[in-house]
Design brief:
The structure holds two protein chains of two kinds. Chain A is mostly beta strands. Chain A contains two helices and 29 strands. Chain B contains three helices and 37 strands.
Chain lengths: 357, 664
């Protein structure tokens, strides 16, 4: 209890001071325009491109398929996921690889956040641990075990997302077992400095996908379990929940009935708006705009398969959307308007987007 | 390989089953052919040569191969730019493609059991209409020759023993026995075993192509391969003139699944079992013009894979040992009628294929499926004038699937399908004109056809974690055109052949991913055009030469803009093959082969580039006695590995093999 109160106090203070610290937001110079990076993947190969004045670059850098990209503190990290399991640092000044390190087999890196000016925390979805890595050379400087959160006979608790607020590291665990989700997800809080576990909160819904801060509150979006056709139903078994740190529990903001299905990707405007990719079924992933205060949901038109990542630029107030549909590509959403960003003909479908400041 | 591979003019050979009349070929035989679109490959092409079935086939123009490791590893071929899954592969005329879906693995075909390989590059014979669009390959098992064609009149039996040993503890042992029981009955039996540790060294990039500092030399692990195979054949000419053949062959293979180079496994592997038996009766001629042939084939095949998580990070991360796979049984009755007149020849076939498939392994969800296929096909050829003929062939395939219980699942998830979709009749057709006859110095042929491939079971109904089925899939179809010709120079025993080909594929089936789920969709369109040329020459008794070249443009024309205009995976722009054989003094012979292909891409987006390949092999044979032969072969002389950072399956470098063949 002592640990939790410390955490809650620290978090609240930090939240009110900094509003939000997203994985992809700036730390040092928040007003500097962000460099936008887009990762394309056809699940066979992957490529990194960047957005310039003329749209998405003609040049690209090849990486393993379906890699995640995360901007942290002026650096770009490429997380080569399952079957490659590498962490790569790309220097945004020349878009060249600075270093690439091999993580454990099947560790499946899922997120990166800043630990301090010299180190980052790396979330591992496929391993029962997460690690701290030196930005300078990619060396692992600390390992934090998470095996106590494994569900049943599972060998990993499936850490899928990190968030940082103040001196606290928030970790989101899906806790799957045998391709099923027998229990709801779990939120764990650690000391940002050394990874010491502070507390945990059991979530309301299964299969959480991502989280984000808005108006000083932490919101968690869940997809829930698949239906018989490997889609998700518009029911109350999934949705967006808000964390009440004082009571150590969560409550639903909007459920799948309102959203139309489970949340596959999630981005939050710190001013109180969330954007959610609703995975209804194969190829049918509309974008929902959720007013977190009013608990209202609107569907954003002109995009239909937004599984290719959502990233909100809280400085410019622009949402970047990856649409993998037949008319897809990289889109921006600003002031209620969806705009397609020009891209080379052979750019692969968008899998990930990152902002670097 | 000269003369062990030859092309023939017979449009209607279609020896996709066992033939009672065998066209013998020897190194003395002069090739006669109208085009390079049909070829036969004989054992001289592989015995003692350290080549797999895929590599042997790729010596032909227009054929490309891929391999993912050493002996027994997954290997496929494409024909004239059409990918492996669209090629019909048969064993004694019965397709191997069905049970587990995907392309047939040539790595598990033991060439010690094979007497002849037939390759149809321009078409899928009408008998297999609806099952492929890219051509057909038929492996004829040993013992197809009647005893009188093999044994001297005074001989009662003959046999052969083959032993070989090579790199990476690779060895083979094979024996074959042919016995003439009476003047009208003979039996043939064969047994083979082959094994390889496949523990070759390779340079690992540790999965980090941008980090050369962590590269290291590694050895392939858990890649052992062992295969047992055998066959038995009995041939009897009955007193009533009926010619009966009973054919039984089996194989059992087992191997490790070594995984990626930076990700080697410990216990993961696979097992495959195959057994096929056929009874065939060729009736005496009826009414003076009709030949009838009846056959019944029973087939069993089982393929399973296993892995142990977390020891192996492969497949599905379910803890403990997981086994998953499919078993299939099928019964194929067939009736063939043949008419042969002065100017007209015609064949009609009616076959039924009743197949039953069910799951194997540790999956808690059982499924089974019944598929009944009826195939009606026919072909006809008419000689308009001497040496000039026209003809055609056509087929209709009617398939009925029955999903018992509504489930077809693999291996950890289940999806209940309401019912199998009713499938339309799949039809194919082809027409040709030909100018050709034995002893002509030149000839040619032209053909045009429409071919189709019905979706595979896994594409229609299979469900894996992360993969969805699609019962609504339509057939893949192709329009194919070819024109070819040949010119013979008798003085130098030289044949020159050239063929232009063009293929337009529509409704190609590709797996597309959405939100992590892959689903097969009819989104592919492609266009392939190319030119093959070959020269076979035996200018001296002691020298024979083969030169082959393929030039092609295999282009993806799918609507997806990032694929449109790109090259089809694994298809080079050019490939060349050269071979020279010299008969030397002291009963020695020497064969040199070189192969080259331009760069290829491993993916549809053309991002994963594999560099051009330049390989050289040789073999030195010594025949001290009439029935004794010793061959030393060196494959990949310059020890090329041709690795790409994103190609994760290292192949062996230089390999040697020593083979002893002893007849008795």
């Amino acid at each position: 209890m002592k640990k939790f109160l410390t955490l809650a106090t620290a978090s609240s203070l930090a939240l009110y001071m900094t509003a939000c610290s997203d994985s992809t937001s700036a730390d040092d110079d928040p007003l500097k325009p962000a460099s936008v990076y887009v990762f394309g993947s056809d699940y066979k190969t992957g490529e990194l491109r960047w957005v310039g004045d003329d749209g998405v670059s003609e040049k690209s850098v090849q990486f393993n398929q379906d890699s995640k990209v995360v901007g942290v503190d002026g650096n770009l990290f490429v997380l080569e996921r399952l079957s490659a399991d590498n962490l790569v640092l790309v220097d945004p000044s020349d878009n060249k690889v600075k270093w690439q390190i091999d993580l454990d087999d099947a560790s499946n890196p899922s997120d990166v956040v800043k630990a301090n000016k010299d180190e980052v925390w790396v979330a591992l979805e496929g391993a029962a641990k997460f690690v701290k890595v030196a930005v300078k050379d990619g060396k692992i400087t600390k390992t934090v075990k998470t095996d106590k959160f494994n569900q049943g006979k599972a060998t990993t608790p499936n850490l899928v997302d990190f968030e940082v607020s103040g001196d606290t590291l928030f970790a989101l665990f899906q806790r799957s077992e045998n391709y099923a989700y027998p229990a709801p997800g779990l939120l764990a809080m650690y000391k940002l400095k050394d990874g010491e576990l502070l507390d945990t909160i059991k979530l309301a819904k299964k299969n959480p996908m991502a989280m984000g801060f808005a108006n000083g509150k932490l919101y968690v979006a869940s997809q829930g379990e698949y239906n018989a056709s490997y889609g998700t139903d518009a029911d109350d078994a999934r949705g967006i929940e808000v964390v009440d740190f004082a009571k150590k529990k969560t409550s639903m903001v909007v459920d799948g009935k309102k959203l139309g299905g489970g949340v596959y990707a999630f981005a939050v405007d710190p001013d109180g708006v969330a954007y959610a990719a609703i995975y209804k079924g194969y190829g049918d992933v509309p974008l929902a705009k959720v007013d977190l205060s009013e608990k209202s949901v609107k569907t954003v038109s002109d995009v239909s398969d937004v599984e290719g990542s959502l990233v909100f630029d809280d400085v410019d107030g622009v949402l970047y959307i990856g649409d993998r549909g037949s008319k897809g590509g990289l889109f921006s959403y600003d002031n209620g308007k969806v705009k397609k960003i020009g891209a080379p003909k052979d750019m692969l479908p968008v899998y990930g987007i990152a902002l670097v400041r | 390989m000269l003369a062990s591979v030859f092309s023939i003019a017979e449009e209607f050979v279609q020896d996709l089953g066992e033939s009672s009349v065998y066209e013998a070929s020897s190194s003395e035989e002069k090739p006669l052919q109208a085009s390079s679109s049909y070829a036969e490959i004989l054992p001289q092409a592989w015995e003692g040569r350290s080549l797999s079935a895929a590599e042997v086939l790729a010596a032909l123009p227009g054929v490309q191969y891929t391999r993912q490791g050493g002996v027994g590893s997954f290997q496929t071929v494409s024909i004239r730019g059409v990918s492996a899954k669209n090629i019909v592969v048969c064993m004694d005329g019965i397709p191997l493609n069905d049970a587990s879906g995907g392309a047939v693995d040539f790595g598990t075909i033991d060439l010690n059991q094979i007497e002849k390989i037939e390759v149809y590059k321009d078409r899928v014979p009408a008998k297999f209409g609806g099952r492929g669009i890219g051509g057909a390959i038929n492996f004829i098992t040993k013992g197809s020759k009647p005893a009188e064609a093999v044994l001297k009149p005074e001989e009662k039996k003959s046999g052969r023993l083959l032993l070989s040993y090579g790199s990476h503890d690779t060895w083979e042992a094979s024996t074959q026995l042919l016995s003439r029981l009476t003047d009208s009955a003979s039996v043939n039996a064969s047994l083979s075993v082959r094994h390889s540790d496949n523990d070759y060294e390779f340079k690992s990039q540790n999965g980090t192509p941008y980090n050369p500092n962590d590269d290291f030399k590694d050895k392939r692990r858990n890649a052992e391969f062992t295969e047992y195979s055998g066959l038995f054949k009995a041939r009897v000419l009955h007193a009533n003139g009926v010619f009966s053949t009973l054919n039984f062959n089996f194989s059992r293979s087992e191997g490790g699944n070594p995984g990626r180079d930076d990700y080697q496994t410990t216990v993961a592997g696979y097992k495959g079992e195959f057994a096929q038996t056929t009874y065939r009766a060729e009736l005496p001629q009826l009414r003076g013009w009709l030949w009838l042939e009846l056959s019944l084939t029973g087939k069993f095949e089982k393929a399973t894979s296993h892995s142990y998580y977390p020891l192996d990070h492969l497949g599905y991360d379910l803890p403990g040992m997981q086994v998953y796979g499919t078993a299939g049984y099928s019964l194929v009755p067939e009736v063939v009628a043949n008419y042969s007149g002065d100017h007209l020849e015609a064949n009609m076939r009616l076959s039924l294929d009743a197949a039953y498939y069910s799951n194997r392994g540790t999956s808690s969800s059982d499924w089974n499926l019944m598929r009944v296929s009826t195939n009606i096909s026919g072909d006809i050829s008419y000689d308009i004038v001497k040496n000039f003929s026209i003809g055609g062939e056509a087929s209709a395939l009617i398939v009925k699937d029955d999903l018992h219980g509504g489930k077809f699942v693999q291996p950890t998830s289940s999806l209940t399908l309401e019912t199998a979709e009713e499938r339309d009749i799949t039809w194919t057709g082809r027409a040709f004109v030909r100018y050709d006859a034995p002893n002509l110095r030149y000839g040619g042929n032209l053909s045009f056809g429409r071919f189709a491939r019905m979706p595979q079971l896994m594409e229609l109904y299979g469900v894996y974690p992360g993969m969805l089925s699609n019962p609504d899939l339509q057939n893949e179809t192709a329009l194919r055109f070819e024109v070819g010709g040949y010119y013979m120079i008798p003085k130098s025993n030289t044949a020159i052949r050239a063929t232009y080909f063009e293929t337009q594929v529509e409704n190609g089936i590709y797996w597309l991913v959405s939100a992590g789920f892959a689903k097969p969709m009819n989104v592919g369109e492609s266009h392939v055009r190319g030119f093959e040329a070959e020269l076979e020459s035996k200018p001296k008794k002691w020298l024979s030469v083969i030169l082959r070249a393929t030039f092609q443009n295999a282009e993806d024309r799918s609507e997806e803009k990032y694929y449109n205009g790109k090259k089809l995976p694994n298809e080079p722009s050019r490939s060349y093959y050269a071979e020279a054989r010299l008969d030397l003094p002291y009963r020695l012979d020497f064969t040199w082969t070189s192969e080259y292909r331009t760069e290829i891409f491993d993916d549809r987006a053309n991002r994963i580039r594999q560099p051009a390949v330049d390989l050289h092999h040789f073999s030195l044979g010594f025949t001290p006695f009439e029935k004794t032969r010793l061959v030393f072969a060196l494959r990949n002389l310059t020890n090329e590995t041709y690795r790409n950072p994103y190609i994760s399956y290292p192949t062996p470098g230089r390999e040697y093999k020593l083979t002893l063949t002893q007849g008795f």
